[in-house]
Design goal:
Layout: H1 2-31, E1 45-46, E2 52-56, H2 59-62, H3 75-80, H4 102-112, E3 116-120, H5 123-126, H6 137-152, E4 156-162, H7 168-171, H8 181-196, E5 202-207, H9 209-217, H10 233-260, E6 263-269, E7 272-275, H11 281-294, H12 296-304, H13 309-321, H14 334-340, E8 347-350, E9 354-359, H15 368-372, E10 374-377, E11 383-384, E12 391-392, H16 394-408, E13 413-417, E14 426-427, H17 431-449, E15 455-461, E16 480-482, E17 491-493, H18 496-506, E18 508-509, E19 531-532
Parallel strand pairs: 2-15, 3-4, 4-5, 5-6, 6-8, 7-9, 8-13, 13-15
Antiparallel strand pairs: 1-18, 9-10, 11-12, 14-19, 16-17
Length: 555
């Protein structure tokens, strides 16, 4: 009897295999191949009228002129001049020399057909020691010249107050771990609003506080390179970053909004996370913790009030289990919760990639990764980029935009960074970037048209190849190639420039049936896209400026 039962089960299994294969083959014949699913097929349509198309940069990454016209030292100046902190000991002393190349950068923006440009102000260029003891008029004049040139070209400036280049004198007294920085940041914001606010109507207080807190004060891999107390320092820094943002927002709201008429918010970065095994509940939970510990760390206090219960409970329980008298995550007072909640006119969002999350028990270790109880990997089938951490998964972009809508009350979303890197030999025919932008932006269009996400703007990262932080000039995110073997640092358009220009000029995606269309931007005839030699000739501009106690790194 048992033998017969086994035979019957085997017959059933074999029959089911034939049955499934028959259905599969029938579907292939019916569809004449393998049609794309709704998730990945292109959607043709347009973003809302007045959608803000932009591209982005950051002061330390492009300006150069590190000691020009009274600029003070930043933490990145010191960090980059410390041997072996930056790939090939590169630094931002010259970078793209944008301090001296306003006209060239404006021409690049015109080529892109964007009507907005996101850049950041260098705090130590305005206030050399980070305080109001000295306001550097020459530094302010540079930003006035830049803003005036943008406005003359009918390009709207989008200005970030803080994109990581903290004045070194403030770090000497604790940086973002010292609560006095909240008042210092408010003072700095006051100077910039007062000087530039009549011309600038779009403000970002702080770019990616997650990176500032975790990489700067936890992992120590970014300036200022602090890693002595990874279980507490990132949370203290993050706490002060949130309070500083709130004070800058209230300052603008109370003192400047009525007469200047701008909007202001914070830019938060996050990956999307999928469970490594979607049928395993601990991986499903780990994926949600990854998002809540990354995006939610800063978005929850700003949009919902206070840290999430998930984050508070986990860190408190793990802190008490380690014998601490209280949580390693600082607590906001009721007044601070009220002060921070609602300090947004929009949701500024940076996104690049998706990860696969899975549960890991770090036991009694005390650090951020142990608190979130998860590790992340990438799917081997996802396209790679020039950065180890960045894999191409466009569908994750739509999912995380929908998550923001559901989690934070459908705020207006400005994507303030999105892009992909390359490394190795330079190929101006950057097909990966073209693929990335077309598919990621199309997923944003789906989020808007199909999911009801309140999309207001999109900024491609980045305008040009620049100093990519610790990776130096090895990783290139730019739409424009900067030839570093030429002392004039020319900006050369890659093929992706014309594709992005078409998307922005068409305000979305036109269907194949509409081609040719008047909104398409065609590259100049005769353009060729050769490989550029894989080596660069390093050069150093002579300067009498020196830094006491800091070794001058190779350019």
């Amino acid at each position: 009897v048992l033998h017969c039962k086994l035979l019957n089960l085997t017959d059933i299994y074999i029959y089911s295999l034939f049955s499934r294969s028959a259905h599969l083959y029938f579907d292939i014949m019916k569809n004449n191949g393998f049609p794309l699913t709704e998730d990945v097929e292109m959607l043709y349509g347009h973003f809302p009228e007045g959608f803000m198309w932009s591209t982005a940069s950051a002061s330390y990454q492009i300006e150069g002129a590190w000691r020009a016209d009274g600029k003070g030292l930043s933490i990145w100046d010191k960090f980059a001049h410390t041997p072996e902190k930056i790939s090939q000991d590169d630094n931002g002393d010259i970078a793209c020399d944008s301090y001296n190349k306003i006209a060239e950068d404006i021409n690049s923006l015109k080529t892109l057909r964007v009507r907005h440009y996101r850049f950041s102000v260098s705090w130590p260029r305005i206030m050399p020691d980070g305080t109001t003891r000295k306001i550097n008029d020459a530094g302010l004049n540079y930003y006035h010249r830049l803003v005036d040139a943008l406005l003359e070209a009918n390009i709207t400036p989008q200005v970030t107050l803080y994109h990581w280049d903290l004045p070194q004198p403030l770090q000497d007294v604790g940086g973002w771990e010292n609560e006095t920085i909240v008042e210092r940041f408010r003072d700095y914001a006051d100077v910039v609003f007062n000087s530039l606010g009549d011309k600038v109507k779009f403000w970002i207080t702080i770019n990616e506080p997650y990176i500032v807190a975790l990489h700067g004060y936890g992992h120590g891999i970014f300036a200022p390179g602090i890693n002595a107390n990874p279980g507490t320092a990132p949370y203290i820094a993050g706490h002060n970053l949130l309070k500083a943002h709130a004070e800058a927002w209230h300052l603008y709201n109370d003192k400047y909004r009525a007469k200047q008429g701008g909007i202001i918010g914070i830019t938060i970065n996050s990956d999307w996370a999928e469970p490594r095994n979607p049928y395993k509940q601990e991986d499903v939970d780990a994926a949600m913790r990854v998002v809540q510990f990354m995006m939610g760390w800063f978005a929850h206090p700003v949009f919902n009030g206070d840290y999430s219960d998930l984050m508070k409970n986990i860190i408190r329980e793990r802190s008490l289990a380690a014998g601490r008298p209280q949580s390693r995550l600082p607590e906001f007072t009721a007044a601070e919760v009220a002060r921070i909640k609602g300090t947004h006119d929009y949701f500024g969002f940076n996104h690049y990639t998706t990860v696969l999350a899975f549960y890991v028990d770090f036991q009694n270790q005390e650090h951020y990764d142990a608190d979130r109880g998860a590790a992340v990997i990438s799917d081997r089938t996802w396209l790679e980029s020039g950065s180890d951490w960045l894999k191409v998964n466009p569908m994750g972009f739509r999912k995380i935009l929908k998550f923001i809508k559901d989690e934070y009350g459908n705020p207006p979303i400005f994507v303030t960074e999105n892009g992909v890197s390359e490394r190795g030999p330079v190929n101006l025919n950057d097909t990966l970037r073209i693929h990335y932008y077309e598919n990621y932006i199309n997923q944003a269009l789906k989020a808007y048209l199909l999911d009801g996400v309140d999309m207001r703007g999109y900024a491609a990262w980045s305008l040009m190849d620049n100093l990519e932080w610790t990776m130096g000039y090895d990783e290139r995110f730019g739409l424009f190639y900067v030839n570093r073997s030429d002392p004039s640092l020319p900006r050369i358009p890659k093929k992706s420039v014309w594709h992005y220009a078409t998307i922005t000029n068409c305000n979305g995606f036109i269907s194949p049936a509409e081609i040719p269309h008047g909104c398409q931007i065609h590259e100049p005839e005769g353009n060729i896209y050769p490989f550029v030699c894989s080596f660069t000739v390093s050069f150093t501009l002579k300067s009498s400026n020196t830094v006491s106690g800091i070794s001058k790194a190779k350019q």
